[in-house]
What we know:
Blueprint: E1 7-8, E2 18-20, H1 44-47, H2 53-60, E3 65-67, H3 70-76, E4 84-86, H4 88-94, E5 99-104, H5 115-127, E6 132-137, H6 141-152, E7 156-162, H7 163-168, H8 170-178, E8 182-186, H9 192-200, H10 208-220, E9 225-227, H11 234-253, E10 260-264, H12 269-283, E11 290-296, H13 301-304, E12 306-311, E13 320-325, H14 347-354, E14 359-363, H15 365-379, H16 388-404, E15 409-414, H17 422-429, H18 440-447
Parallel strand pairs: 5-15, 6-7, 6-9, 7-8, 10-11, 10-15, 11-14
Antiparallel strand pairs: 1-4, 2-3, 4-5, 12-13
Pyridoxal-5'-phosphate binds at residues 112, 114, 141-142, 231, 264-271, 339-340, 384, 386-387, 415-416.
Amino acid sequence: MTDDYYRVALPDSELPTQWYNIIPDLPAPPPPPLHPGTLAPAGPDDLAPLFPMALIMQEVTGDSYVDVPGGVLDVLRLWRPSPLFRARRLEQALDTPAKIFYKYEGVSPAGSHKPNTAVPQAFYNHQEGVTRLTTETGAGQWGSALAFACAQYDMACEVWQVAASYRQKPYRKTMMEVWGAEVHSSPSEVTEYGRGLLAANPDHNGSLGIAISEAVAVAASDPGTRYALGSVLNHVLLHQTIIGEEALKQLAMVGETPDLLVGCTGGGSNFGGLSFPFLREKLAGRMNPVIRCVEPAACPSLTKGEYRYDFGDTGQMTPLLKMHTLGHSFIPDPIHAGGLRYHGMSPLVSHVYDLGLVEATAISQSECFAAALQFARTEGIVPAPEPTHAIAAAVREALACKESGEGKVILTALCGHGHLDLAAYEHYLSGKMVDLDLSDEALAAALADVPDLERTA
Ligand SMILES: *Cc1c(COP(=O)(O)O)cnc(C)c1O
């Protein structure tokens, strides 16, 4: 293979047919979720009102690999394997000796990596006789992925979209409706919790934590309905490992080994999906990349949060998860990367970070959009606001390589396109974008609401 490739296409026959579970390969297992009432480890029965048994079993499996069902592969083949690109033109513009590769997930129907897990989640629910799924969505990416997936299996889909994003992103809502979903602005009049919040503040901006509470409440009250979560949980990261498994094969096709992986982290799923297969190789001594999470400076759960048991939602209805958290009552500033505005981090990503197996850094949005513009003008693709964080981190590293003369191989996930996020670009181009750093007071106030379990846990 010569050195002048731009796009590395994996043959269709090489589509991975197993997901990778990193837990058996870690030096210690992650701490279990706790029942919010008893504080005992939550068992399968505690989760059964919310999730189908097949997904609960994947959540706790000790197997290293899980077969992807044929009925899931048939749908994934609509866009997978996804391409790996080498960002040659960006490298030239940066005048760097580094090689920058990006795995592009914007080729999916919904335009992001989210359908990689939406499809199996809808599949397993459908197999167990569930007829309706509920969920929350922030930026609208997850809601549209689940709406698409439910349409594949003829299921109803009901989405609570964070009010601020519902108002700012009407086309995401339309996209969900095109695929047949019903969309509510959250807080909504549909749930008791939502009605209470609206009564106190009719113009409530909402948050992911609130929207989760609403979707969970509706699923828990109807036996034919289950809830689906687009990030954070083990089974979601499991499904996303197809990204990293493909990328491993694609880099091998061109004879490259990464020195650095960077990925944006909201709830940790695209990051875990890309990096865990590489972490497996690293733990086995077959390669030695540095693996780095990149989060927004306005919502820095890994770099400024605490590693504690906290609720996944604002209404305190979910099991307690041991994770890096800013506090379940934390409502981040309205930065454009809506998918990164979550108070917590996936327990698995939190655990590997706590073990020192991955690093983390936080970047402000104006640096991210500056890097995204440079990327779009060289590589052509307009990134979603979330992966602009990964691009900014890759650019930082490529510029450091220019100083040091090192030809590092950098790998990142361009986990979605930004075609429905042009308002964010307009904001940046018109010079109105400001950087919102988290104040110490806001952080201290939200952390004060985290349950004090460490003595009992
Ligand atoms: C949802 C989303 C994210 C954040 O979620 P993770 O679980 O951290 O991947 C990032 N980028 C895009 C494009 C998204 O849709």
